[in-house]
Design brief:
alpha/beta, 399 residues, eight-stranded mixed sheet, FAD/NAD(P)-binding domain
Length: 399
């Protein structure tokens, strides 16, 4: 008999886990606290390690129809726009790693996963308005729900409910809340045909400055451009400190962004000025995982940001959640109810070191990208000489 597995969270990681587990024969119910399944945010980069997993789920073709396939990644100086390094993507990276490099809107990837989950009914049930605030293990079952409201019972529970996970405290008792990094990300989207010709590009463009950097790339089949500016400030000063730190879709405007970055990003200013609307979110994270015990406790296991939130400086947050989902299905996809605790433990043992490495590298990249003084000069010199060698990540993309 298949196990009954509850998944708290209907985002990218939760839906990927539902699809992967159901295709292995398990019975899954996804519990989404919102009133509808939807995704907020903007662009997302999917390296070959991620698209390889989408192919394993038979979803790469559907995702590719909604994605952009950038020609290259180009790194520039944020102050004057001069080119520091360039690495081909497109056919070159697909030949090397056996899978493409894609850029998508988060909502488009979420829609692909949601359609796949719905197609697997009745093995996948999708429930909305399902807020999980309490988790209790009762013998061979797990009960999850909210005080005084409906509760759900299953043989196991997957916490895929993000950075501010309400399942996580059951796995990691006494853990402090996510830590504020002092970094803020501003994001904007614009139709490419509405931009001046000089600002249009089918590449992943990166600009490195002092205590900030910016990233732009095409999404939605190349019809839209996604721009993110990440800086070590808080938008709006003291007023922003009063905003909910869990809100990653805060109101923002061009004036607040320019006040925050000053003259540190002149090389990107024309593109920044051309964007029609801005949103912002304050970045929070956790220290890298210390061991498998940070991901599992008996019949409850964590996945994605609930286990290992990371800064966006390696573009792998959603990617690691999708990797988690496939590994979880490999370890627990054919487990009986009695076998789930052991299967969950094998999953955590298989994933924690890679996730911890990506977390640590993302934090280090933030320091490198935002370097100043002599360290910035040395970084730029290394990029000019070594170029594509420094931009490639064989350990990541081939893993």
């Amino acid at each position: 008999m298949p196990a009954r597995i509850l998944i708290a969270g209907g985002g990218i990681g939760g839906l990927a886990a539902a699809v992967a587990l159901a295709r292995r024969g398990q019975s899954v119910e996804v519990l989404e606290q919102a009133s509808a399944f939807a995704e907020v945010g903007a662009g997302i980069q999917l390296g070959p390690n991620v698209t390889r997993r989408l192919k394993a789920l038979d979803l790469l073709e559907a995702a590719s129809k909604l994605a952009a396939r950038p020609a290259a990644v180009a790194v520039r100086d944020a102050q004057d726009g001069s080119l520091l390094a360039r690495m081909p993507l497109a056919d070159a990276i697909e030949r090397k790693y056996g899978a493409p490099y894609l850029c998508m809107h988060r909502a488009d990837l979420h829609a692909v996963l949601l359609e796949a989950a719905r197609s697997l009914a009745p093995r996948v049930e999708l429930s909305t308005g399902a807020r999980i605030t309490q988790v209790a293990a009762r013998g061979d079952t797990v009960c999850a729900g909210a005080s005084g409201l409906r509760a759900w019972e299953g043989d196991g529970l997957v916490g895929a409910d993000g950075l501010w996970s309400l399942v996580r405290p059951h796995v990691v008792e006494g853990a402090p809340p996510p830590r504020a990094t002092g970094h803020t990300a501003w994001r904007a989207l614009a139709r490419i045909d509405a931009l001046p010709a000089a600002l249009r590009s089918n590449e992943v463009q990166v600009w490195l400055g002092e205590r900030l950097h910016a990233v732009a790339y095409p999404v939605r089949g190349g019809a839209w451009l996604n721009l993110v500016v990440l800086a070590e400030v808080q938008p709006g000063g003291a007023r922003a400190q009063k905003q909910d730190p869990a809100d990653w879709d805060q109101q923002a405007d061009l004036a607040a962004l320019l006040a925050a970055i000053g003259k540190r990003c002149d090389g990107v200013f024309p593109l920044i000025e051309a964007m029609p609307r801005w949103r912002a979110w304050q970045l929070n994270d956790r220290p890298p995982l210390a061991g498998p015990q940070d991901m599992v406790r008996e019949r409850v296991v964590l996945l994605g940001d609930a286990a290992h939130p990371m800064l966006p400086y390696l573009a792998q947050g959603a990617g690691m959640a999708i990797e988690d989902a496939l590994t979880l299905a490999e370890r627990a996809g054919d487990a009986t109810a009695a076998d789930l605790p052991a299967a969950f433990s094998r999953y955590a043992a298989a994933r924690w070191q890679r996730n911890a490495r990506v977390q640590a590298r993302a934090q280090r990249n933030g320091e490198v990208f935002h370097a100043s003084g002599a360290r910035r000069v040395a970084r730029d010199a290394a990029l000019r000489v070594l170029g594509a060698h420094l931009l490639d990540n064989p350990w990541l993309y081939g893993g």
